[in-house]
What does this fold into?
Amino acid sequence: MKFALIILTLLSVTFPCLAKTRITVGAYEFTPYFYLLPSGHQTGITVETVRLLNSLQKEYTFEIMQMPANRRYQFFERKRADLILFEDPAWEWAKYKYEFLPLEVEDGEVYVTRAGTSSPKSFEELRKMKIAIVRGYHYSFAGFDADERFLKKNFTVELAENPEACLNLVTRGISDVTVVAKSFIYDFLRRNPSYRDKITVSNNYDSVYRLGLILNPKGRISRAKLEPIIAKLKKQPEFQKLIAERFQLK
It folds into this structure.
């Protein structure tokens, strides 16, 4: 037994990475924060943020674990995720035990319709429209209730797996409107400039996000340990640039 302990000690000294604590970062399709390219490669602001977190310290290894948007709460509650980046506490988190670390990142959801058509100006007008929404996402017009039975009962909705699919439902005339993050639209139009003449983006918001980090109090990193790392992250010019570029068209 003593020999085994000596070997482990030597390995920890020789290979410091072996002593790092693995921290699981839950991530789901949420463009531009996290999404998959056609090749299956993970990309987005979350991926870059995790890379920065690993570069800022030597005690932890932050690793992304992909999960479905509508099951992230269950993953979190079962301790499969230590933390989730770019979340708003308003999105059903009140039902669960969590800690919130603000990242000072704001975003919001805007209405998108086909070019030449107007976006809804009131809740009553929206309720009469066919709305394309993402399964598992939370919308202000629905009281942030993501339950599919509630949504189908109270609205005419077409459920999709990601915001891009919602946008396609609108441009094809299957849905009248979709509600997507402003940052998603900028990211999508950067990658697909031909769509700029196909859609109309509203100036009014369905909701405004105040995004931060949701920490699992039963996870493998405490708030006291994480806070100084996040404070350092927010001061990084590379992180600040990532956030600022969300709303830039090139």
